[in-house]
Protein: Pectate lyase
Organism: Sesamum indicum
Amino acid sequence: MEGTKLNWLLISFLAFASILPLLRADIAEYDEVWRRRAAEAYNRTVQAYHPDPLKVVMHFNKHVNKHVEESGGLDDVMMLNTTRRHLGKAYKGPCKVTNPIDACWRCNPKWHLNRFRLADCGMGFGSKATGGKGGRIYMVTDKSDDDVLNPKPGTLRHAVIQEEPLWITFRRNMVIKLKQELMVTSDKTIDGRGAIVQIAYGAGITIQFVKNVIIHNLKIHHIVEKDGGLIRDSASHTGLRTQSDGDGISIFGSQDIWIDHVSMTRCADGLIDIIQGSTGITISNSHFTDHDHAMLFGGNDKYPGDEKMQITVAFNHFGKRMVQRMPRCRYGFFHVVNNDYTHWKMYAIGGSSHPTIISQGNRYIADHPYAKQVTKRECPESEWKHWTWVTDGDLFLRGAYFIPSGDQDWPSKHPEKSDNIKPASAKLVSQMTKFAGRLGCKLKYAC
């Protein structure tokens, strides 16, 4: 059996490698460096895949419930459980943490003296992401992006191509207009705390065939398509790229990624695209508005390599004028937990190619008279009725409804079913997501 599995993996990799130049990789010239990166990335995906993803689900829920219990439960938050949003930016009181990720670091006024503490706070499938922890702190001092072949020291592009672990910070407020897609190398944290950092009006961020990246506290908006060309993608390599698609953040064949406290809106393509065997990812505490195709997890029904995709989507707010794909999934395992869905014009969660979707403790508020259904499957019912799409403890308002399918008894079949822990109550979602999006962190003050 083990030999058969290894043979299958080898065959899959050979097929994967042979078609990569034809896929949406944006690699115009598939040289030896890119071939090596692709092979290394595939091996990391196999290694990063969690054989029992329900353990990750249970672990997440356990820690959220522990935080709720230690915070006093429902007593001080029920008054916030309304259908109207009051985002944290309007909050003027003392620092208040509302979920366990933030409780790990946010209310310490000396957070800036130990930025690395953030790396210990991840949860879910992306919890192994430590970014540039232990590396040098690199301060971005120059907002320009004039030379994508030989980036100027002090720019964000110069920082992200370095081959050492780096924790990247910003000296002042800045709007960075990327001339071409920003190619991020492994072991990096982009930490926007302490400044208002916007990636806007140019290309987006690309995380391709790399590992261990944290993106934190940025505002990403009005991302546009950019022509291809030669771009430096590491300190030692320049590659030829095709036209970028206009994604805010594109994750391709990468592992151990954590996106936290970002605000995203109005990108030419997707806000966040995660494709081609990427796995070990968490998207948390973020705020999304004014967009059609929000999140794509798995880009091709003909690429079964995404079976190993495992993603946690937690404590996010999907807000005004959102349309669809929050997320839209293929093949993998997706834990969508304690998010606030207050707007969708078509559907909230969709998929094809038999993804497993565990929706727990979310609040779904239908705001459109003809779009009450949360879910959408892009295939005949004769196929999707066998997919495991579970709703567990979700709250449905204004006529919203979720059509479950497949095995609804999945918790009882878990080998450690005695540890079956329910998600935190959906009635707490408006509180847990109160500070979603970019935080107004100032040095020497709690965020």
The domain at 6-432 is CATH 2.160.20.10 (Pectate Lyase C-like). Helices lie at 2-19, 32-48, 53-70, 100-103, 156-160, 381-384, 429-432. The two ends are 52 Å apart (CA to CA). The CA atoms of residues 289 and 319 lie 5 Å apart.
